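re: ur question from earlier - yeah i can do the single chain one, its not a big deal. heres the input i used so u can compare w yours
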Amino acid sequence: MLQQDTRTAAAQVAEDQAKLNLAKADWQRQSTMLKKGLTSQSSYDDSYSSYQQARAVLAQDTALLSELSIKAPFAGIISITDYHVGDLLDSGSDIATLYDPDELTVTYQLSASERSVLKLGQTVSIQSESDAQNHASGTVIYISPNISTGLMTLKAKVTPGSTLKPGQNVKVVQKTSLLKDQVTIPTGSLLSNLEGMQAYVVENGKAVLREVKVGNYYDGYVQILSGLKAGEELVTNGQNFLHSDETVTVNNAAQQLAANNSAKGVNHG
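and the output i got, formated as C-alpha cells:
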C-alpha cells in the first residue's frame, strides 16, 4: 500500500549479509581448526561470537527495512485515500480504506410488520440506484432483533463477482415467498392522482381508464390486487398522453408479462 525510500536501508541489509557471510566462514574455519588442534578455544569462541553478532545485526536491519513498507492485512481494493506521493503522514493516520470485493454486505431496513416472513438465508436482489444495469444477488445473513420507528434492520452478503462498490446507494428486494396466480404490471404503467392509482387497458381498440388497487412492489413491477385481470391488454408506453376512448394501436413487440401472471403490454404511439 505504501513504501518509503528504502535504498539506504536496503544497502545496509546487503552490507550486513556480506559481513554475516564472512563471519560464518571464519567461524566454520575456526571450528575445523579447533578439531585438529590448530587453534585455541578462545579464538573459536571469538569467531562464534562474531558470527552470532552478525546474525543479530542483519535481523535488526532487515526488520527496520520491512517497517518502511506498509502492507494491507488482506488482498483487496483501495476505495478511499487522502494521501499522495510525497505527503507527510502523522503516526496513527488512516492511510486508506480497503475492501474485499468478494466480501461486500448491504444493510437495509424493512417494515417490522413483515417480521414473520423474513428469514435468514433468503435471497435478495440488489440494484444500484444510479445504474439500473449494475445489479447483483445476495443472501440474508442478519436480522436485527430490535425494532426502531416501525423498521427493522437486515444485512445481506453480496454474491461474489458483483461490480457493486462500497458506499453505493442501492435498492434491495428481498424474496420472502412465492405468490401464485398474481397479476403484476410495470410500475411505469401506473397513473397517480387524487383518486388513487389508475392504468389504461385496451378494449375494442380504445383506451379505457381503470381504477386499480396495488399491493407489493417487486423490482420494477407492482402487484395488482383489483382492477385488472390476467390477459388484459395494458398500455405500458405513452399513457400520460392518452385519453379515455382514444383509439390505440396494439404493438405486439411491446413487453409482454408472463401469461396468466400479468396484463399484456400495449404501446400508445
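Residues 257-269 have pLDDT under 50 and may be disordered. not sure if urs matches, ping me
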